[in-house]
Amino acid sequence: xxxxxxxKGTLLVVDDMxxxxxxxxxxxxxxxxxxxxxxxxxxxxxIADYVLPDLILLDIMMPEMDGFEVCRYLKSQxxxxxxPIIFMTALDDVHxxxxxxxxxxxxxxxxxxxxxxxxxxVDTHIHLHQLQQQLxxxxxxxxxxxxxxxxxxxxxAHDLKNPLNGVINLTEVLLETCPFDTLNPAVVxxxxxxxxxxxxxxxxxxxxESMLLLAGVSKQETVxxxxxxxxxxxxxxxxxxxxxxxxxxxxxxxPPEWPLAKGYAPWVQEIWINYLTNGLKYGGNPPVLELGTxxxxxxxxxxxxxxxxxxxxxxxxxxxxxxxxxxxxDRAHGHGLGLSIVQQIxxxxxxxxxxxxxxxxxxxxxxxxxxx
Length: 372
Description:
Blueprint: E1 9-14, H1 18-29, E2 33-38, H2 41-51, E3 55-59, H3 67-76, E4 85-90, H4 94-103, E5 107-111, H5 115-177, H6 185-219, E6 226-227, H7 230-240, H8 242-248, E7 251-253, E8 262-263, H9 265-282, E9 288-297, E10 300-306, H10 314-319, H11 338-348, E11 353-357, E12 363-370
Parallel strand pairs: 1-2, 1-3, 3-4, 4-5, 7-9
Antiparallel strand pairs: 6-8, 9-10, 10-12, 11-12
């Protein structure tokens, strides 16, 4: 007597000829498969929907509802569309074989049945189906773990903001209110250390804000795209970076006008901020940043920032959009989340990001958005 532990899988044979069912039943039960049978297409559909077998052996020529109709219906239903179907057809019936593949069949078995062919084809597709199910289960588990990790990171980052703001505020109060004797080396040293604490606090706060933004973008499944006033967005970006532009003595070159694209303004502003910030840090001395666009192509507009820096090698370019990756660490401080945020944002908006660069020729960072 078979036990559940010896069952290799469940098969459904749909055929209106009892002799065919009898032959397949004999072959397949010897291989430790559980075999179910249906005498017509409607019955086969009901059994497939209820049992969800690992594989269906489907005859083409049946009354009322032929195998093609059954296959099309099963492949149109979310519940049964992943079940592999093997058609049973005559050896020289090439037309039916082609039509079967067009309907969604995975394979075919020729009549009259050859014992070894039946075993080989059934074993192959059962194994593939089971591997697919295992992969889907692993993907679901991985997706679940990723969501839990995102939620944990978001909670931790959010909870760190309040105490960190307290540390920053306290050190700033101490720097502003406490009397310091500039002639006392110990007092001067204490003041320098407080300044280091304040600066480190702001760096940590920037990391936390970036992590929260990245988590927010990752969590947002859809966003409504609206026409963008790119000139206004750029103006806001330049204003927010004014102190940095002054510090680096940078020059910004803008086009006379911007084409109309679709996106989500706060996210697009974040892209420009990250690209310009990188251009200021890694551009020339002083930095000259040219902003521009390329003509629309395939319904997309390319926006870009060209710097006058030393350029980036091909190896470094492959690492750029990876989280927590920084290049030329001797020139600038950062946490390496900026470009990974840019990539997440652009993809959520239906676009792409990239870089074109070569050592000694500067770098051009770009992103694409849909045309309005």
